[in-house]
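User: Just a sanity check before I run the rest of the batch. Below are the structure tokens for the first item. I only need the designed sequence back.
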């Protein structure tokens, strides 16, 4: 056992296909490495086996973890212990911090799960298959979301751009060329569970209407995949704006998101949309290099709480901002 072990996991962006992905349509997501969840594990007080202290004021209010509880971290620790054949945990202190805004469509919950699983592995010196870590993170997502598609935990665990269909192995996307996104936070916190539940209610009341929206999104996602893999990447812009229009009809946008999308487009973005659960959280805009500052300034002027710029590259991921 180590003295101390620290692990991280990135945030994520859904480029296309959120919500429809819950209904078996494809979606595309990328990891965002400049936003990161960090978990450090270190020894707790001696002779207190089975006791786990928590130091994560940004994300969890408890200071000691009840391993029998249905709290996300309690469930994560139980599933990890089962998979790694750990009978009883040694006394440990788990410290978690995150630069990913919570409840804002950037995968904060799944990143915290993955960082914590990686830290447990490192500290306890066990190594589980990456599929097992992904599947534990998925089980924990169910506590946050109810009926998650699994896209968040998958893109964060594998840290690659993915084309994802629920209950199917994901496909890694090879990017044809670089592209830049400006990300902007509305500052409005919105729980994915609530929005996903509302979409489900709508779908149950009028399945034909909602299935039609999901089908429109599926078409957009598949067109987007073609331009991500074969170019031209500028085609992604209008597809993003089209995806946003469908999400708006679905009722998962909100006035502030619409306002930021319009501001980005007016400032010269090639396309813009919300990302993740919606009704708050973050939006993304595709921008040419020459427009990055203009779009970023326009978004700040329009009331964004923070902005980031991320560059996706064919070989690896470079982010700055
Ligand atoms: O809001 P986030 O980052 O948890 O993303 C949710 C994405 C949805 O498609 C709305 C739900 C899901 O489980 O895929």
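Assistant: Here's the designed sequence for the first item:
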């Amino acid at each position: 056992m180590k003295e101390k072990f620290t692990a991280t996991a990135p945030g994520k962006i859904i480029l296309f296909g959120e919500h429809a992905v819950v209904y078996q349509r494809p979606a595309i997501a990328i990891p965002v490495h400049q936003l990161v969840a960090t978990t450090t594990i270190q020894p707790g007080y001696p002779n207190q086996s089975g006791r786990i202290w928590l130091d994560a004021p940004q994300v969890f209010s408890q200071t000691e973890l009840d391993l029998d509880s249905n709290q996300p971290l309690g469930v994560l620790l139980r599933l990890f212990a089962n998979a790694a054949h750990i009978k009883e945990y040694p006394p440990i202190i788990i410290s978690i911090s995150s630069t990913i805004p919570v409840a804002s469509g950037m995968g904060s919950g799944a990143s915290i799960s993955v960082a914590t699983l990686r830290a447990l592995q490192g500290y306890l010196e066990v190594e589980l298959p990456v599929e097992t870590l992904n599947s534990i993170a998925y089980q924990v997502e169910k506590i946050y979301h109810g009926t998650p598609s699994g896209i968040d935990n998958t893109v964060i665990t594998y840290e690659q751009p993915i084309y994802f269909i629920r209950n199917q192995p994901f496909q890694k996307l090879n990017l044809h060329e670089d592209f830049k996104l400006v990300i902007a936070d509305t500052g409005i916190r919105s729980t994915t569970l609530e929005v996903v539940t509302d979409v489900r209610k709508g779908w149950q009341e009028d399945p034909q209407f909602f299935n039609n929206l999901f089908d429109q999104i599926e078409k957009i996602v598949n067109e987007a995949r073609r331009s991500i893999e074969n170019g031209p990447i500028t085609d992604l812009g209008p597809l993003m704006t089209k995806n946003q229009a469908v999400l708006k009809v679905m009722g998962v946008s909100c006035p502030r998101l619409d306002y930021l999308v319009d501001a980005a487009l007016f400032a010269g973005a090639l396309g813009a949309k919300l990302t993740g659960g919606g009704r708050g959280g973050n939006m993304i805009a595709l921008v040419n290099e020459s427009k990055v500052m203009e779009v970023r300034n326009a978004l700040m002027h329009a009331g964004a709480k923070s902005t980031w710029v991320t560059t996706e590259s064919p070989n690896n991921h470079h982010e700055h901002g």
